[in-house]
Specification:
alpha/beta; 272 residues; 4-stranded mixed beta sheet
């Protein structure tokens, strides 16, 4: 076997394969621990809109989102506070702006909506609330309040909004009803947010979750193939199942003996 080829496979290809396997094995362990340190999802249904089965469905969705989508979660808060009770002019100014420009998912989002921070901090005992960056990044709140100009507001997390385009923002809005406070509409809002997060939220290394899994599988298969190729190259001259391998020295000795034998019998031809 060519010594340079042996060096290439041993010192370059094999470490690359092992590095790929180690990298993705580490990412799986990190994903398993991704829920650590996240706020606890809040379901505060003061208006008693949802039944226990629907609440259980939302809890199950949150367990999946927290584990697979870096702590993303959906809170449900139903209340009947008026703007006057909130006692802050910024909430009124916010709705004046929304009426001018029109409601969209991005305009309701955590980064643009003062209700997001207000209710996140208001429910800090249940969460428990950590810091503004964590809340803005992880928490999606569905706020149901029939006293507000928009009765159902999907307040999407900032990190989720950073991963969707304008047309996706528009498409999500077409599926939502901002005025219907029924259980069916609340669950539809949960469903739209949940599916959009799973479809559009980027996983580690800037890849969407489905694409990341596909790439991870492909690279692990590639690592296995590299290891297989290294094994084949190492055993290229070895008979299947092991056994004696002819070395260069063996070939030299055999050639010498063949030449000696031929030279020894050259004289026989002279006699004939």
């Amino acid at each position: 076997m060519n010594p340079r080829l042996h060096y290439l496979t041993r010192s370059i290809l094999l470490p690359i394969a092992l590095l790929i396997i180690l990298m993705f094995n580490t990412s799986v362990r990190a994903d398993a621990n991704s829920a650590d340190g996240n706020p606890r999802p809040v379901i505060s249904d003061e208006l008693h809109i949802l039944n226990q089965k629907q609440i259980s469905q939302i809890q199950q969705i949150n367990r999946h989102l927290i584990k697979k989508y870096e702590g993303q979660q959906i809170w449900i808060i139903s209340t009947n506070k008026t703007l006057a009770e909130l006692q802050d002019p910024k909430f009124e100014r916010y709705f004046v702006n929304i009426r001018k420009k029109g409601p969209t998912v991005s305009r309701f989002s955590m980064g643009n909506n003062p209700f997001g921070d207000y209710y996140a901090k208001n429910y800090q005992d249940q969460a428990p609330y950590q810091d503004e960056i964590v809340i803005r990044g992880d928490v999606n709140i569905i706020l149901i309040d029939p006293n507000l100009p928009y009765h159902v507001m999907p307040i999407a997390s900032q990190s989720f909004m950073d991963n969707i385009y304008d047309f996706q923002n528009l498409f999500m809005g077409l599926q939502l009803d901002y005025m219907d406070v029924s259980a069916a509409n609340v669950m539809n809002t949960v469903d739209v947010l949940n599916k959009s997060i799973q479809k559009n939220y980027y996983a580690p290394y800037g890849l969407r979750d489905s694409t990341f899994e596909e790439v991870k599988s492909a690279l692990v298969m590639l690592a296995g193939f590299i290891i297989f190729v290294v094994w084949i190259i190492d055993h290229w001259n070895t008979p299947l199942g092991g056994g004696y391998v002819r070395s260069d020295e063996d070939n030299y000795d055999s050639g010498y003996m063949d030449g000696y034998y031929i030279g020894l019998h050259d004289h026989d031809d002279d006699h004939h």
